[in-house]
Here is the input.
Amino acid sequence: MPWLVPVLCLLLVLGGPAGAATGETRVLVLLSGDGRPYQQFQTGLRESLPSRERERLDIREHLDDLPGDESYQLVLTVGTAALRVALENSNLPIISTLAPSSTVERLSEAHPDRAITGLYIDQPIDRHIQLIKALFPDSSRIGHIGPDEQAPDRLIEAIEQHDVSLRHVQATDRRELIRVLPGMLDEVEALLILPNALTAESSQLRAMLLHSFRAGVPSFAYSPGLVNAGSIAAVYTEPDALGRETADVLMEIMKLSPEDWPAPKHPSTYGLATNTDVARSLRIRLPAEEPLRQMIEQDE
Here is the structure.
């Protein structure tokens, strides 16, 4: 299974009212891997914690070496695999980070008895639309392709808040995607690419980027990698910034009982990437980053 890769585990010993006999809250932190995003997250988390708590980090490197629940009061999971491991192997309350909102919501519904809070990896859909409107204030038709017959509720709700309409089409594989893309691109002024089961496949992402570029329709994505591959712009979550924001959430959460935890939420910070080469090819003028950020945030 995908999560049977080495999992980096951190033991944070943090002062708080929900502590064990020592008067200290003990938090087990599970990372889904040891790649660059997880290292960046860890750096942001560690640098943002008070020095006393940061100095008490205890690193565990293997999933099969996880300690029992009795040593901790809650678990902080970083990534989808870590969240699943915590739900399957622990009864502790969970702070989830670096996992998509759709996954966290689905797993929360499957485990209604578990307290789960935290920060999603994906940006609020409203922020994606504000990016599109910042670059194309006169655009009125946004396209979206996903594996479901209907667009996600969050996307529909966000569209209703702006002076735009949505053209959503369904595709479950690359063959169907290639069939429906041309007709949809003829009807829209921008293509919004969001993380879902369809965009999890790199070949399908490449098809979206290539067809939209050839059709002269700018695509807006959710990662700097997709911007480098041909999307014109993206708002995305930076792992180190998410680590810093998670440190703040962690310190606040430890003041509360799990039954009083807030629902998981999208991060307030975001990265912004643009592709000047694509913009030039499409004869689109890109503003500098700071003015573009101001345009995105003016209605937040």
